Amino acid sequence: DNYSWHWCFLINVPLGLLAATLCAANLADPPHLVRNPTGRVDWPGIAFLVIGIGCLQTLLERGNKKDWFESGEIVLLALAALVGIVGLVLRELTTDDPIVDLRVLAHRDFAVGWLFTALGGLALYGVIFLFPVYTQTLLGWTAWQSGLSSLPSSITTASTMAVRGNLIWGVGPRKPFLGGMGRMLFTLGY
Q1: Rounded distance, CA 37 to CA 132, Å?
Q2: 168-186 as b/e, with b when 16 or more CB fall inside 10 Å?
Q3: DSSP states of 60-82
Q4: Tens digits of per-residue pLDDT, 73-122?
Q5: Are the C-beta atoms of 88 and 49 separated by less than 8 Å?
Q6: Based on CB atoms within 10 Å of each CB, which residue in 44, 99, 131, 186 is the most buried?
Q7: 8 Å CB contact between 87 and 98
Q8: What is residue 11's DSSP assignment?
Q9: Is this model's pTM higher than 0.85 or not?
Q10: Crossing angle (nearest 10°) for helices 72-94 and 43-62
Q11: How far apart are alpha carbons 40 and 45 in whole angstroms?
């Protein structure tokens, strides 16, 4: 409300620099971990990733303004996104040095965990995105009021992350994950 919209992004720059500095100073790969021993870079995979995700994001950002698939630009973006994402999947499953190793999804536990994480992320980020739109457009709240109303859930999330992180080391990930997903599904039902 008091500054330009650019500050929504600029405020993260000092935090990001601090996080990068702390990570560089305190995190190191274990000696047995060898990343990309061949040294080859999957440039076609990177190209497919950039085209697929870039076109999909542009389609989602401009689609509403351009009346979705009534616009030739949106149709082209959809086709490019489809080609990019399908090309990425095919490339990453057939190359020896993938930029995104999709073969890890062959492990059932990892695939199920990834699926639940993706669904939970969609639900959580959907709410995080839709709540300010609802409060500011329909209820007429200011950005400050909308932000303050979401502060309790943000504080709860931040504080629970520290507790849950330590809990997982003690009891394993399955029980906290299932408990959290169960509570989330229960509350979404209301």
Answers
A1: 46
A2: eeeeeeeebbeeeeeeeee
A3: HHHTTTTTGGGSHHHHHHHHHHH
A4: 999 999 999 999 999 999 999 988 888 888 888 999 889 888 988 887 88
A5: yes
A6: 99
A7: no
A8: T
A9: no
A10: 150
A11: 12
